[in-house]
Fold:
Amino acid sequence: MRIIEGGVTAAQGFEAAGIEAAIKYQNRKDMALVYSQTPCRAAGVFTSNVVKAAPVLWDQEIVAHAPAVQAVVVNSGIANACTGQQGYDCCRQTAEKTARLLGIASDAVLVASTGVIGNQIPVEKLLAGVEKLAAAKKDTAEAGTMAAEAIMTTDTVSKQAAVQIELGGKTVTIGGMCKGSGMIHPNMCTMLAFVTTDAVISREMLQTALREDVVDTFNMISVDGDTSTNDTLVVLANGAAGNPEITDRDEDYVKFKEALNYINTTLAKKMAGDGEGATALFETKVIHAASKEDARILSRSVIGSSLCKAAIFGHDANFGRFLCALGYSGVSFDPEKIELFFENEEKSILIYKDGVAVEYSEKEAAQVLASPEVRVLVDMHMGEEEATAWGCDLSYEYVKINADYRS
Amino acid sequence: MRIIEGGVTAAQGFEAAGIEAAIKYQNRKDMALVYSQTPCRAAGVFTSNVVKAAPVLWDQEIVAHAPAVQAVVVNSGIANACTGQQGYDCCRQTAEKTARLLGIASDAVLVASTGVIGNQIPVEKLLAGVEKLAAAKKDTAEAGTMAAEAIMTTDTVSKQAAVQIELGGKTVTIGGMCKGSGMIHPNMCTMLAFVTTDAVISREMLQTALREDVVDTFNMISVDGDTSTNDTLVVLANGAAGNPEITDRDEDYVKFKEALNYINTTLAKKMAGDGEGATALFETKVIHAASKEDARILSRSVIGSSLCKAAIFGHDANFGRFLCALGYSGVSFDPEKIELFFENEEKSILIYKDGVAVEYSEKEAAQVLASPEVRVLVDMHMGEEEATAWGCDLSYEYVKINADYRS
Structure:
């Protein structure tokens, strides 16, 4: 597996664009297009929220029933959630316009939105944006970056990843982009993430790979515990690499899944580390848990705790909060048996063992917690399973962003 | 039911004290005593956190097995959680000392702690505090207030409530005090709350009344989603009122439970409204839900959402966040059918209906959201059940308090 530069245009036959459509804000890119020169097999996972945005309803239908997908149109001004029939019509009009301009079927067009919930999108601006996107699309890395920038809302950096593997003597590329920041607590998937690949893989195995991987990647991050109405993760595979088709769980499937896991993990961590107001990526790894599900629940409970997040922000080794968050997770364990460490790239400090705090240097612990990537390692001493979850600290800036968001 | 002034000393035969013991901080009261002149029947509910503080383990044993309870000793400096055998020994020593000084059995003494997790309590300071408490205890309202002040941590105001009812021609009083502020997301009960009554009631019916009531009172509040290691709610009944004993679900039981519900609701709301950094009490009432449990889950999901809490802090009628929080609660419903209102004492503004926003004045909505007590009313149009949950807004101050807590 070779990590390369790039994003959604890294794989062969994919083009992208990012432009200004002034949907809600001026002077910033707010619409993106991902386009494949040939029809793609598509797999997707979507929000589990009962309140689903119109584009989620549109995309679920297409991913389940349409013969192929060839384009995705995204706007980052208005979420198009809680917008009723008018919101759904807006999706249809977007897809139809895109289809006409690109010479493809309208049920080959996915749409996605992120932004304020409850407002209607000015459809004429959206359709004008589609025209600009169709004219601007290119297969360059730069075009991929423009698209990654155009889907940002309160994100502070754009998020891309790409990787190459060899399958049957052919080079297969997977690339992706995502946006996150607030209302991030994916359940089944995440905010907006788009992955493209030129792999030849059956629709069933593509969906299987995505479903299996998402539980350990996008479903393991949280910024604020709020599961969005718009969460969408889509993978498009156009087959341009010409590798032998992946149709079952063979060696190639395992390689493909490893590569997909790298992309999803990288994008998910970027999302967590750039959560609204974040000053640090806050990782919790639980090892030697009794079951995989226990490990997932325990690690997510810690990164989701407001008090743990605030302690990370304050560089305060207030380890009791971490034990407390493990304790209310719903998983049963003996607090006397676990060990807790604070870690960064260079150091690992044991803080708690045998039911009590060990002797440790508060100064050294505070230094570790001041790192841009902080890890809490919990050894449950109960079994062989492990899981990692990613979040971020809770800062004044998070409150500021979300108290002022609409203004 | 007559609402009266006072707290834990309002009922006949109860005394209290609050003193400075310098357990962790100087120049503030940090130990409290509640004492009954005669033995009490006791009922209690405690944290569901797997990581239980030593005093919780001590109290659970006594409430389950001891013949009577006559005193509660509280410190608000150190939580005595994650402190191993030494922490439990500290509870035993506290109870033994208290028992000697008051001439009662050591298994008639409950202990409770709140504060930093993971530190050991300097036991000599605690025992010196017990001496001061035993000398200072009085049956006055002022003594009750001193106790209510002594259990505060980051609370900004002390919290008491008292009420009187007539049972079989006798006046029965129930009074209580509590502290809350941070790490508040009770599950089975709450941080520290102590209720005293002179009612004659069997131990079984006292525990039944408490268990039944707590699901609609203390279990319906949240400040930050973190279920503490120390949550303790204890009711002591000394029988001094001389009413006919309550031994089953008769009319007197119903009256007693109504009064208990008033005390618990009042204390729980005070706790929510004085959550760490709070500028407003944030209430969510869900009506016409399909089941009581649905109503509870939906209302708690809204008051627990960081994004809803930040919107209240910002006085921003960003109603989509409230729908989003209902949507990810786990309860199934049709978003097109529900109605959402923002309310304060004087006004009720319809914001959302038939799947879309209605025409409303942003200015008027912002004014309502700027009230000290804000209510979100959600009509599910699905059935006849309702529930109310209470929380607070999310402010810069919450982050500040919890990033700096130990310093």
